[in-house]
Amino acid sequence: MTRIAVAILALVLSACDRLPEIYPPPEQRQPQALTPDPYAMMVEMNDPDAAQHIVKDIYEPFGSPWRWTGKQPTVKVLVYATDNVKLSADFAIWDDGFKQTGPLELSFSVNGHSLDKVKYATPGYKHFEKPVLAEWLSADTESTISVDVDKLYVSPQDGAKFGIILTRIGFLR
Amino acid sequence: MHAAWTVLAILFGWLFTVATAWALGTLLLRKLSLVFYFWEERLFAFLVGAALLSAIVFALCAAHLAWKPLFLVLGLAIIFYALRMGAHHPRGDLFTPLPRRWRWVFLAVFGTFTVLYFINALEPESSPDGMAYHLGVVAKYQRTHGFPRITTDIYASLSEGIELLFLWAFEYGRHSAAALVHYAFFIALIFLILSYARRIGRPGAGVAAALFTYASPVVGLDGTVAYIDVGITAVLFALFYLLQIWDQDRNPQLLLPIGILAGFSYAVKYTAFIAVPYALCFIAWKSWRARKPILRPILVVSLLALAFILPWMVKSWIEVANPFSPFANRIFPNPYVHISFEDTYRKFMRVYALTSYWQIPWQVTVRGDLTTGLIGPLFLLTPIALLALRFREGRQLLLAGLIFGAPYLTNVGTRFLIPAVPFVSLSLALALCSLEWLLLVLVAVQAIGCWPYVVQRYCSPAAWRLVEVFPKAALRIQPEEAYLQDNLGYDLARMIERSVPSDAKVFTFSQPGTAYTSRQILVGYEGAFNELLQDILWTPMFRDFQPTRILTFQFSPRELRKVRVVQTASVPEGQWSVAELRVFAGGQELPRDPGWRLTAHPNPWDIQLAFDNSAVTRWRSWQPPQPGMYLEIDFPGDQKLDSVVVESSSDSSAAKIKLDGLAGDGKWATIAAAPVESIRLSRMSLRQAATAELKARGIRYVLITDDNIGANDYRSYAKLWGMKCVAQQGVARLYYIE
Fold first, then answer.
1. Domain end point (choices B426, B455, B484)
2. Are residues B268 and B383 in the same domain?
């Protein structure tokens, strides 16, 4: 009986290893090695979740990979780093609309800071890209990008107003 | 045909469990030559047998022998042996028949509610806690044929006496069989109340009390799902009942079932531990009053109770280094449950959503939303139960009700009042027993007022209660999947089951119906490891969590053997945290040497988080800062240093630190009394770093529901998190870390 009790006691005690309380330094993380998807900061207008980023003046896509904008299309985007970041936008100026509006001037701004004003004298596909100062950005809160279109196309049928045809907008690094 | 087999399997699992328990109990009671009334014997046999069967299942689980065929062989052997020993032959006298009027009242009300309750118990299990953990752990034990070591689920560390009976039934009839086992305890409780009242010569009061309890909305719902509150109430009432019989008979053999049930109370639910001191004090007091020996009966009961309590303590001690886990973490510090969790949990359970304790009477009897359920308006008459003090039995009932209801002070959920309900019911009925017409009126009021259709007219719409029952779902004419499809917990579980490989782990902030998935689920608050993952995922979104506070200790160069960053403030709330601790010499950071020995007090197990060069992980005290807490580096030899930098976050800015050093002379000395503080905002998003940490810990799936903190962030910036959405179900999205 005593032998059984001793055996059980030994078994129980052997099951209760004391947890270590002293450790060596662990493997070191290399945060620079993390490279997110280069397009992670771009808002694609055909992305099902694009509406999450749209603040105002960007219309529903109606099945197309692009969207019409209003006077001041605005999106919010989070950057994964604040340095070496460029604002990038792909859009088009509609030929028929251009006949009514003539050359358009677009003002690009980030978090209320004016980044650039560009005059487009021809219709068709356009690409805009320009570096953004790191001080304007924050890595843990969303940044607001807005594009101000100086003249809008007014539909003769219903009086609806349109700015540009936006495909994608956001930041690249 | 499939539906019929499913229902038969459920009924078999239920009846097989009840029959095995009853057979075991009858064998013991007969062996002890205990003589009860006919019905008493059957009821005590079931409850004592349940304790014995639970202990057997515990042993089988501990030995990883919890196999269905073994259960079947063992159960059948027990039942056949009991039958062979004549267990089915009646023994004991019958009670005097119930007065005719009371018999019909009982049959009418009990029968009507039984139809409702039986259907509810037979329906596919959809109760929140039943799906989440009462059956969640049972399903794990069933898959692994024993106790797997679970360190990431606080619920798996609780005592699970009734859950092990669920396991016995679950093997055959799955979830609904388990709910029916709980319902068997409910039925036993009702007949125990009735029997006790008949024993003391108050059959009318017994019928009234049994029906007050049976109709109570929270008791009715709880007792017909896979919970354990009504089960523990039945055990406690049986213990009370046996003690009363022992007080009359002084039969020492009664001490055995008393000890078993006292120990089983703890084995069913920690809060019922109070049954042990109650039984011991009762026996000691009564023995002392009768000038009989005290020590022997106390020893018998204590040893038997310990036999049922100790296995659970040992299990928790071996698995999570704390015999009382998830509580008592200050006494038994361990890496599996944080003290901060325990503090928060206790604090919440004491108030729920109440703004004043004066809300409790109305909430627990009538409204039921802030305290999750209602016992019924009749219990507003509880003060009248004090009139029962004029009877000896009334005094005993009220004392027991007070003691078994005492744990309510630690958890103000209505469910925690259930152990007191039968005692209050019977006291109330005794108090009014001389006014039979009034008792009949009260039974009618309780029965009608607690019928689901009527309850909804006065309770809060959010009250936890039985709303309606679905016979087609109960009989599986409506398939289980169809019935449960609008249940979020079930939907999440099935989505996980479909989309996640069998060996993968899923982290989530919300509790899915774990009982319906075989995948390992890590719920944010359910363990220290889970809380660490939660902290990692929140850090990129909250600047307060990020290591933006740079605390620099600059000093003249000196050789040190050890350095300690010591916390000096006493802060009642919050925590102290250190994201990185760096040491410098000559303006250069010293690379972390494998020869360094790192430790911390408290929480030494997380010390590496302050030395991993990751901005999303941090060592945390996981309890309010106290003077003397420290982080320490022990160098392999004397190390020349001239500065130490602590990277911390603004959510622990109340903590104050100093730097101590141990020089070659072996003496500790303060090197710098306070650091210079500067702010350095992160120029990089920490999102991908966070998911990389989860990946490094073997977590590839994250389940987010729309009500989770940051749900929109994960959705809008899945790419920045390095994740992609692989499944969606209503308000929930399942992400895969790429």
1. B455
2. yes
Greatest alpha-carbon pair distance for chain A in Å reads 104
Architecture in CATH for domain A37-172: Sandwich (2.60)
**Other beta carbons less than 10 A from residue B517's beta carbon:** 21
- Identify whether the C-beta of residue B224 lies closer than 8 Å to the C-beta of residue B120: yes
Question: Chain A contacts of B311, Cβ < 8 Å?
Answer: none
Question: Is A7 a residue whose pLDDT tops 70?
Answer: no
Q: What is the pLDDT of residues B205-237, one digit of tens each?
A: 999 999 999 999 999 999 999 999 999 999 999
The pTM for the full model equals 0.91
Check CB contact under 8 Å for B722 and A139.
no
User: Model confidence over B388-398: pLDDT tens digits?
Assistant: 999 999 999 99
H or E element: which one contains B713?
A: helix B711-716
Picking from B93, B87, B86, the residue whose alpha carbon sits closest to that of residue B40 is: B93
Distance (Å, rounded) from C-alpha A45 to C-alpha B177?
Answer: 52
Q: Say if residues B626 and B568 touch (Cβ distance below 8 Å).
A: no
Cα distance between residue A161 and residue A173, in whole Å: 34
Residue A25's φ and ψ, nearest 5 degrees, are: -60, 145
B487 within domain boundaries: no
pLDDT at A2 > cutoff 80? no
Domain boundaries, position B610: 545-679
Nearest to A52 among B314, B685, B715 (CB): B715
Distance, in angstroms, between B132 CA and closest chain A CA? 29
Alpha helical stretches, state H, B67-148: 68-84, 100-122, 128-129, 135-144
Domain ranges of chain A: 37-172
How distant, in Å, are the alpha carbons of A11, A24, B196 from that of B647? 44, 19, 66
Cis before B124? omega within 30: no
- What torsion do the CA atoms of A44, A75, B691, A172 make, to the nearest 10 degrees? 60
B298 contacts chain A (CB < 8 A): no
- Looking at residue A62, what DSSP letter applies? T
Q: Is the pLDDT of residue B288 over 60?
A: yes
Q: What is the largest CA-CA distance in chain B?
A: 97
In the three-class reduction of DSSP (H, G, I as helix; E, B as strand; rest coil), residue B283 is classed as helix
The predicted complex's ipTM stands at 0.88
Residue B672 sits at the chain A interface (C-beta within 8 Å): no
- Do residues B271 and B412 make contact, with C-beta atoms less than 8 angstroms apart? no
- Per-residue b/e over B700-728, b at no fewer than 16 CB within 10 Å? bbbbbbeebebbebbbbbbbbbbbeeebe
* Element of type H or E holding A88: strand A85-93
Q: Are B513 and B124 in contact (CB under 8 A)?
A: no
Residue B478 covered by a domain: no
The beta-carbon neighbor of A34 closest among B335, B688, B717 is B688
> Is B172 among the domain residues?
yes
* Residues from A in contact with B at Cβ < 8 Å: 12, 15-16, 19, 21-31, 34, 36-37, 39-41, 49, 52-53, 78-83, 134, 138-140
Question: If you average pLDDT over every residue of chain A, what do you get?
Answer: 89
Give how many domains chain B has, as a whole number. Answer: 3
**CA neighbours closer than 13 Å in the CB half-sphere of residue B265:** 28
- Beta strands A165-172; B723-729: pairing state: unpaired
Q: How far apart are CA B325 and CA B345, in angstroms?
A: 13
Q: Pairing between strand A67-77 and A54-58?
A: antiparallel
Chain B residue with minimum CA distance to A137: B683
Q: Are residues B228 and B205 in the same domain?
A: yes
Q: Which residue of chain A has the CA closest to B685? A: A80
